[in-house]
Design a protein that fits this description.
Blueprint: E1 4-5, H1 8-28, E2 34-40, H2 44-59, E3 63-69, H3 75-87, E4 93-96, H4 106-112, H5 124-131, H6 140-152, E5 160-164, H7 171-180, E6 184-188, H8 195-199, E7 204-207, E8 225-228, E9 232-233, E10 239-240, H9 245-248, E11 254-255, H10 263-282
Parallel strand pairs: 1-11, 2-3, 2-4, 5-6, 5-7, 7-8, 8-11
Antiparallel strand pairs: 9-10
Bound molecules: nicotinamide-adenine-dinucleotide.
Nicotinamide-adenine-dinucleotide binds near residues 166, 167, 189 and 232.
Length: about 280
């Protein structure tokens, strides 16, 4: 069997067209969705992510600002800047690019962002809302995965989903979103014994591990859906996922490639959340 490819780039482009239309409508009503991104220090990967987010805002006709702070900025100064943005009516979404330097308490920073502007969906209030199925900002990568499945016509209701990885930004929330849509969910992680015995049972496997080509063909049931969240470099320095694409695509029914799978959806859902925030702010 050769798996069908879930083309994240195409699905993201379709979603972006919808978002651009929504931006136009809001602008006609005098509201330009605005995103503020705070970048602390000079992490190369973070800078690339931030540049891509700004570029996406521009392409969609949104307002965006980048606030750069030096590595040695104090926690107080960062929290002060977030507070300013919380009050700024032109800003509907605030994002602090992670990781931040160790001398700053990440939890404090996340909690200082107004839940009404937390377009990353990391604030505990929004996580609680997600868990209880209320209106909120869903975290972008997990949300993007749900959209990929929906757009491919794959229903998760009644399916056994095995999530490999339990991070707060990917593993945990993606399992919760699957559960909200009536999947039976199993979480596996670094302490799981006999990982294959779980993944082999899965109708849908979500790999969010951070180890290049970690999931092999013998982890996967024939015809299963395989979602690869990983962004890694292999020994040759080439971008690759957590799933051994060559092998697994021979067994799976559907598979997301890396690149052009989950990746393009993350920024797209960030744009979606910012526009949603702008629309909701104009209704308050
Ligand atoms: P993380 O390091 O926070 O979490 C990794 C998880 O994998 C942990 O929960 C750990 O328990 C689990 N794990 C580690 N070794 C394991 C093993 N041997 N067996 C089973 N589980 C194991 O990572 P993260 O932030 O969740 O990111 C995971 C991957 O996804 C990374 O490659 C990251 O770059 C990528 N990522 C991609 C996007 C995107 O937009 N596509 C977004 C976020 C993260």
């Amino acid at each position: 069997m050769t798996a069908e490819i879930i083309n994240g780039k195409e699905i993201a482009a379709k979603k972006r067209e919808e978002i651009a239309k929504e931006v136009e409508k809001l602008k006609e009503n005098g509201v330009t969705p605005g995103l503020a991104v705070i970048l602390v220090g000079n992490n190369h990967a973070s800078r690339t992510y931030v540049t891509n987010k700004q570029k996406s805002c521009q392409e969609l006709g949104m307002h965006s600002i980048l606030i750069e702070m030096p590595e040695e900025v104090s926690e107080e100064e960062l929290l002060g800047k977030i507070d300013e943005l919380n009050q700024d009516p032109e800003i509907h979404g605030i994002l602090v690019q992670l990781p931040i330097p160790k001398h700053i308490d990440e939890k404090k920073v996340i909690e200082s962002i107004s839940p009404l502007k937390d377009v990353d969906g990391f604030h505990p209030v929004n996580i609680g809302r997600m868990m209880t199925g209320q209106n909120t900002f869903l975290p972008c990568t997990p949300y993007g995965i749900m959209v990929l499945l929906e757009e491919t016509g794959i229903s998760v209701a009644g399916k056994h989903v095995v999530v490999v990885g339990r991070s707060n930004i990917v593993g945990k929330p993606v399992g919760q979103l699957m559960l909200n849509q009536h999947a039976t969910v199993t979480y596996c992680h670094s302490k799981t014994k006999d990982l294959k015995s779980y993944t082999k049972q899965a109708d849908i496997v979500v790999a969010a591990v951070g180890i290049a080509n970690f999931i092999k063909a013998d982890h996967i049931k024939e015809g299963a859906v395989v979602i690869d969240v990983g962004i890694n470099r292999n020994e040759a320095g080439k971008l690759c996922g957590d799933v051994d694409f060559e092998e697994v695509s021979q067994v799976a029914g559907y598979i997301t490639p890396v690149p052009k799978g989950v990746g393009p959806m993350t920024i797209t859902m960030l744009m979606y959340n910012t526009v949603k925030s702008a629309a909701e702010s104009s209704n308050r």
